[in-house]
Every structure is written in structure tokens, then in C-alpha cells.
Sequence to fold (1202 residues):
Amino acid sequence: MTSADDKASLSVQGVTVRFGGNIALDDVTLAANPGCVTGLIGPNGAGKTTLFNVITGLLAPNAGIVTMNDRDMTKLGPTRRARLGLARTFQRLELFSLLSVRENIRVAADIRKGWSRDKDNPAEAVEKIIDRIGLRDVADARVDSLPTGQCRLVELGRCLATKPQVLLLDEPASGQDETETAQFAVLLRELAAEGMAVVLVEHDVRLVMDVCHTVNVLDFGRIIAVGTPEQIQQDPAVLAAYLGSTAP
Amino acid sequence: MNSLELRGISAAYDRIDVLFDIDLVVPEGNVVALLGPNGAGKSTLLRVAAGLHGPASGDVLVAGRRVNGVPPEELARRGMCLIPEGRGIFPNLTVRENLRMMTFTGTKLSDVEERSFIRFPRLKERIGQTAGTLSGGEQQMLAMARGLATDPALLLLDELSMGLAPIIVEELYEIVAQVAREGVSILVVEQFASTVLGVADYAAILVQGRIVRAGQPHELAEDLSKAYLGA
Amino acid sequence: MDKFLTFTIVGLTLAAIYAIIASGLVLTYTTTGIFNFAHGAAGMLAAFTYWQFRFVWGWPTPLALVVVLLVLGPLFGVLLETVIMRGLEGTTDTVKLVVSISLLLFMIALAQLIWAPGISRPLPGFLAGNKPINLGATTITWHQAITIGVAIAVAIGLRLVLTRARIGIAMRAAVDDRSLTTLNGAKPNLVSMLAWAMGTSLAALGGILIAPGPGLEAASLSLLIVSAYAAAVFGRLRSLPLTFLGAIVIGLVEGYLAGYLPQNQYLTGMRIASPAIILFIVLLVLPNPRLRGRMTRSREYFPTPTLAGAIGFAITVVIGAVMLATTLSDPDLITYGRVFPIGIVALSLVPLVGFAGQISLCQLSFAGIGAIVMAHLGAGGDPIALVWAVLIAAAVGAVVALPALRLSGIYLALGTAAFAVILDRWLFNLPVLSVFGLFDINLFANGSVSVDAIELFGRSFDDPGTQMIISAVTFALVALLVIWIRRGRLGRRLLAMKDSEAACATLGLNLIWTKLSVFALSAGIAGLGGALYATQLTSIQPGNFELVQSLQLFAITVVGGIGAVGGALFAALSLYAFLPLLVTLWPSSVRWVGLLPGGAGIGLGRNPNGAVHDVREGFLPLLAARAVLAAMCVAVAGAYVLRLTNVIDNWAFVVLLILFPVIATIAAGLSKPRAVEAAAGNDEEIRDVPLEWRGIDRPWTKADLEQLDRYLGLKEMELHDVR
Fold:
């Protein structure tokens, strides 16, 4: 993971999604660079999760393209995209509820082992990830019995086991307490520092402002602002989106 | 007398705790606005009030009587009306059929139509159209018309403005204000804050399942941007 | 031209009936989300009841019709909705399917109980005595004309009810958004009841109209429903107009095949199987649904089997089989010997349904393929034929699964049921087929085929005792294989896929390939079971491998516990040991014993973990109390020796076999404090139990309390209060 060629950048260009008569995403363009955490915020129903579904191939857009490393992925299915180095977590947790924490991560590591030419031992890789996300104490517990904050970490661990280059996180901090969120922020920065391109959808504004290099604001399916966290906090369009058109 | 009173409400989805010990009162004839960022638990609170989601603890009182466990259709018959988030309409039914669904509460179809068309003349033009093909604003009007058709005593509005252009939102809130003047108690949940603050008598800010601030609308304006954007 | 018109009318008449039945099915499915496999059986019961009123009790036709269609039909529908279906809201697809399949089995058994099969019950069509109506080029019988007219009336009537009547509008509203209807003050339960009343009435109408054709026979009449399912699939089980269109296509195809298909012994079956074939083709062309995450959170809990438990299970099975083989008489061995081969077929369901969450209703068809392979390639007792049986059944399994894999559970169920119907009605009944004179394809040779016993090292294993032991050993080995899968990479992967296909895909898993391999694996296991079944039967015929038996095995394996090998043994023992035993002990039970499998499925199909789970829990104290366990084993061995030396007879032996474990369990319960400690010391086992069951399933411990606190967020709350 040292040469620059390995590092991916994700690019979404002109993506439009319509559900019946409603436009969920309207000509959305977004870039995520390796080594950076890119924030994506916006009011409820702005289309954030829809955008993740488009990027991961769970939903076909009506228009627009999604590329990774300048490779057009728009026509590829979710499996192929994952194998190109894309991973995501889910806002509504999609854990394997019948399995333990360790087994959840192991499934992902085994999937990677199944198609890649890696020489690593998946069992060892899983143990490293468990330590990294700090779930050693509950590694054998069934994920069903864990509080939401830890479930979010299991989803993250599962992603890490696929060794992604681009990581999409959908509200990873919801359900975490303050200590957990602080630890999570440290982990996020580490991941970015290692060269991953991280896209973060999050409602915890403090976390977003804290870790993101760039923040995109989505409203009514449109990107209405892009900038550093400081710029976003001052942007009148953003304030209007959150507070109403005639906000003070 | 309070039209709606929530006492010590806590609630959870699956294992995710959403609300912690919420107290909220809607006095008769008042408009109360519940504001807050995404995921604060606003919609859940409305669902608890409407009987669609059982609270983990706490009491729901409608017109002074405890209604925990009373099924939602019974509450509807007692004059409560929830207009849920994301258009409370039946998309595959025509506008007329949507209105007809309101007659289960005992109101005559002619009354329903009359009340609806006075407030929303545009719906009359679209009477035979399938609701799913209406524009977003018209769908929300239909949802409101449905809600108001039975002449409810208590109206619960969830994210009226979601996905709508500001000008349409203002139009809708004018109707809300008008309805309030007619004496209907209203609890409105909103993210799009300033428009609703112009209508509300009283407002509360919900953040991460707890009410962090409550008071007169003008007192709250400053706290809002902090709650939403952390600045 | 005359011929064309004649068969157009034949086709349209069928289309009319299919449309009536299918529209009832769509009505109940869309409004309540339950796909009613027993829909056709309701029509069958109605036809029998009508026949009873009209021709046995001599009621006038209008009175009989009114009572069946407007009184009994709706009442029965309401009964089904309130007593059975309402409780299924929020359960998994598999559970819903098991309940409605069990209902189908129950209703067939009920019809056979009331109207003994094998007696001719002529049911003439309406106005059969009158002269057909002359249409110039051709004629149309009154029954045909009435049928087509009734279908048109049903179409118009449904349209009126659903668009004009308020309750009909409420039914459509419930399809859009059920919780929103409650906000409107409409009673959703009333809507569901009405949907079931109307749906069942339509099934009854269809049943009465179709019965004069194929005749009053419970099973075949109930399964005619596959044709109606095919029509409903045209409309994706949702659209009534497309369902009517589908019915017309299927009816006409069937009609023209009747008229124009060359009259030979190879193709006659194809006409009867044509709706199933069309269903298969439609499934192939249906567009891909969007990949979704989990819809319903399952409450099932299948613990990871331990190695010791697995080996203990395997050894117990083999020892049990040896005891049976050495004590039972030959006729009894032939009766009870079916347990283990059928058990293997049931085992094939465990990885497929239990682990992967896929559904197959044609496992006995795969078994039939294995049996045919065994019969032909294993002539002379060649054991290599067993390998071929596995491979060929696996290959067929993969081909069958392919069209439906992209689709959700219910379509997979329909696709596999259709495959079973194609085999039952057509392929399994083919005579010897010569392919370009090069080689012959010979399935059941238009009747039955004899099967040679396996021969190894010059010894033929042809006595029933040895065969039973071979089957039991194979069962034990396959059970170990299934457990090994569960504990390994594939098992984890399948359980993961069952929980969230969306998550698996975004982690890079090839879903189609994974599903295909588990289908092939499952079909292969079923083929192995079928091959051994064939050697035990010594002569096989299509009737041994019919859809109804697959349905029964599926339902009872779920009742036993589809997630564990014990569930498979439970199903095989219940169906092929307990039921025959019951009839032996209590001969008069033969009349109603057929009701039991269906009844069990309706009553117990809802327990997501299965009966075996509860049984296993009951034996846990015994397993912990080593001394008592050892004493029990000695006692059983002693009884076995007494039996072998003919000191006691079979009955006494069986009584002792049942008595010893019961006594041992009670004894273990008395030494409970020690067992509790042992269980408490085993931390890993406690973690396995879902939180809400702790203290019920296993003794309550301090660790549980801590975990409960964490889960309820009590610590968090305290912190908050301090702040």
C-alpha cells in the first residue's frame, strides 16, 4: 500500500436517481481522495444513503457515472465493485446476527481470501482487526447481544477485512456514546493516514467537523456546498437548508 | 386542558434507544413545534403519541386520559390525526379514493370533499388522478387534506417540509396557521426550522433523544444552529 | 378451423378457471403478505362439499352453490385468517410457507378422511344434460360457456369492488401502506378478513368449475393450483389484470397442446405439465429485483454444534440402527428402514434452508433422480453408482435453481414446486426414450424399475438389516458433513447470506455462485438419500418421489428444527417410524393419522428453532451429569443383551429404551446443583444464548446481569444522571 498507484480515488459524476415522480438525487458530483476523510451531511431525506447505494451498486442511477481510480464502475454489480476495493457500512445495521463478532469479520476475510491472491492467513487478519476496533472482550459474543455502538464497529471491522481502498461509512457514530465516538475519530484519522479514501455520512456534527478534510452538503438531492468544515459552518446556503430559507 | 401530554416517555427501536424521559405538553388550541437534527428521535416521539409505537416507559395522555396501548385507529376515531413523514397518502389510489379512506372515521364523503377543496382547491382539479403521480407539494396537500377532513381536535404533523421547495413549505404553513386559528391543537415536528417558528406558540429542541431546550420560539433561534451545525 | 376454435374454447375455459383461482390468490397475498399454498386445496374441499350437497344429499344446484360459495367459503376464509394467518405477521418467509404448506397437507388428509379415496365420484359439469350451444363452426358446452361467463363476471365484480366499494378501496390502500390505513380509522383486521373471505370464495368457485374435468381426487385437484400460481406470477403476484392475461396465455397453451400435440406416449404428459413449464419460463424472464437488506428480523437461534456433540449424535444414530437391525423382524425392518435414507433427504434441507435460507420444495424429486441413477448405473450392485447419483442429482439441482435464484424465497418455492410437478406429471412417466438410436434414456420405464442391492468385495448387502445399518452409517456421516460445513467457512458464509444479501454483496461475495453451490450440494445429498432409499425399496416407481411427499418432509423438518441435523432425524422418525408405529399399535388410527403431519406443521411451524431444540435443552442436565449418563448407557446395553438372548420381547425392549432416558433425565435433574455449576462455569455456552432467554434456557448468572445492564444502557443512564 505504498505506491501511489494503489491508492484509489472515488469519483461520482452527475448522478441522478428518480423514484417515480420524485427526484432523490439530482446531478450529484462528489470526489473522495485517498488519505482524506470526506464528509457528507444534509437533512433527513436529502439522499445520502441513496447515494451510497448508487456508489456500491445496489441501486442503478438514471444518469451519471461512478468511477474508482478512473475506472468506470457504473455498469458493475456490487460484488465486482467490492473486489475493486470498495466497502461500506449500513445505516440500518446489516450484521450477520446468527454469528459472533469474530465470525462476522471472518466471513469478510474469507470472502477476500476466496478471490484475491493474498497470502495472509484470514484467521490472523481477523484477530488484528478485532484488536484494532477494540472488541477483544466481546469477540465471541453473538452480535445480537451487543449495543448498537459496538455493532457499528463490527460493521467497520467487516469492511476492514476486505482491505478496502475506498470506505463508505453510513452514520457510524449513531448509537455510540461520547467515549466511543472519540475513539472512533482516532481510528478514522488513522485509516485515512494509511491512504484510505473515507466517505463519512454522519449526524454527529462535531465528529464531522472534527475529522473531515472536506465536507459536502446534500439537500433535496443536490450538493449545495463543498468546503472545509469551517467554510461549511459559515455557509449561508447550509444554514438555510437546515434552518429554513429565512433563517436569521 | 391539555390536548396531548407526554410524561416521561422513553422508547427504543429494536435495541437502539431513541428517546430518554421526554416530557412535552400541547395545550388546547396551541401550536407546539418540536425541532432538532436528523436522528434526534422526533418522528419516534410522534409515533409514540399516535399509538403506532409503544413506549418503553412513560404515559401518553390525550385530553387528560391515559391512552397507552390504545390502538391507533381508536385514537383516530377520538379526533387525533397523524400526518406521517414522507407523505401520508396511498400512492396507488386516486385522490378521491384517498379522501374516501377518511370516511372510516364516520365523516361523510361529501363533508370530507367539501372541507378539503375549500383549503386545497388544486386537489379538486386532480380528483381522478392517481396520487403517486401528483407533485410533491400536491401530495403533501392531499396528506393534509386527509388529516383535516375529519375535523380533528389534535393534529400531529411530521416533517411537513421534507423534500419540498421553500415556497411550497410556506404555503403549507399558512394553512397550518389557519387551522390553528380554528382551534385545532397541533404538534409539528420539523427540521426546516424558521418557517415553523413563525407559526408556533411554543417550541422545544430535541437532540439525541433528549429535550435540550424549550421555550418561546424567539428564545430558541440561536440555540438551533448550534444544535444542527455545532457552531 | 373447427378444430382450432374448439380448442380455443377448451383453452379459454381453462383460462377462466385459472383466472378465478389466481385472482383469489393475488387478493390474499397482496393484502396480507401470505402466499397461500393451500389456496387450491380450499377449492378442492369446496368441490367435494358441493358434490356432497348436490349429488349425495340431493340439494338443488342453486342452494348447494349458495351454501358453498357464499356461506361456507367465506366463513372458512375468515376462520383461516383469524385462527392461523393473523399470527404470522412479522415471521420469516419460511415460516409462512411451512404453515400454508401444512394447511395444504392437512386439507388433503381431511378430504381423504371424509371422502375415502379410490371411489368414483362423478361430478358432471353444469347443465351437462343440455345440448351444446351451436356457434356455427363449432359448439360450446353449457359448462364451458358458464365458466367463461363467470370469469368475466368475476373480473368485472372484482374491479367494481376494488374501485367503488369503500372496503375494497381500503384493501388496495392496505397494499400501499398498511399502517397508514389504521391512522385513517379503517380496521386492518377487517380488511384482511374480507380479503381471505373473498379469496377463499374464489378458490371454491374455481374448484367447483374445474373438478368435472380431472375428477374428484384430493391431491391432484389441490395441486392443479400450480397452474393458477403460474398465472399469478405473470402479474408478479400483485397485478390482477396481468394475472388474467397470464391465465389466458396458460389456458390457451394448454388447450392448443391438447389439440395439436402429436398423440404419442412421450408428449401427453407435457400437456399436463405445461403450466409448470410456463411458470419456469416466466421466472426466467422476470426482471431482477433490487438487492435488499434484511426485511424481517428472525428470532431463530441455531447454536453452533460442538464437535463432541456431533460425534455423540453420529454414534448414537449408528448404535440405535444396529439395535434395531438386530432385533426387528424383516417386514418391520423394511417398514422402519426408510427412516435413514429419508433422513438423508431431510438432511439435505439443513444447509439449504436452515443455513442459507433458500427454499426447495422438490428434494424428493432430486432423491428420485438419485434413485433412477442407482437403478440403472448400479445394476449388479456397483457402489460407484452412489457417486453418480450424487453428481447427477447435484447437476440437476444446479440447473433447477438457476432461474429462481435471482428472485426471493417465494419464487424459489414456486419454481422448485413447478419442477417437481414437471417430473411427477411428465418426465417420471416417460417410457424408454431412444436418443437418435445411440443410447436409451430410461427413467422409470413407464412403471417401476427394480434396484439391485449394493455389492462390495463380492458380498451383496441385500438383507434389510444390513441395508438399514449402511443407511444409518451414511446418515451419520452426512450429518457429520453438515455439521462440519456449519462450523466452517461455507457455513458462516451461508448464515451470513441468509441474514443480509446486501451486506454480503458489498463485501465482494458472489451471491449467485454461493447459492448455486449450496443448491447443488443439497440436491447431491438428496440424490444420495434417494439412491439408498431405492436399494431398500428394491423396486421404485414415480409415486415414491412425489411433490406431496417433498412438501411433507419440508414441513416436518422445519417443525423439528431446520437449522440442525437433529431436525432431519426428527422429521424422518416422525414420518417413517412414529406414524407407522402408531398405526400398528392402534389400527383404527389409520383413518386420521394422515392429518398429523399437516396439523403438526400448522401448530408447531411457528417455533423458529424447532422441536429438537427443546428436546436437546431437556437433555442438557443429563449430559452434564456424567455418572447418570454412564449408568443409563449400561442399562440400555443390558436391555439390549436381554433382548438378544430373547429374555424379553421387542415390546418390552422398546418400553425400556424409552423408559431409561426418562428416568436418567429425572435422576440428573435431582443432582441439579452440580449441573448448574457445571453450566455456569462454561462461559462460552452462556454467551450463546440470546439475552431474552437467559434464565429461562440456562440458569441466570452474574455475567448475564452485567450484559443485560450493558444492553439496556443502564450504565449510560447513570452517567447521564450524574452529569
Summary: The CA atoms of residues 24 and 131 of chain B lie 34 Å apart. The mean pLDDT of chain B is 84. The longest helix of chain B spans residues 166-181. The longest strand of chain B covers residues 2-13.
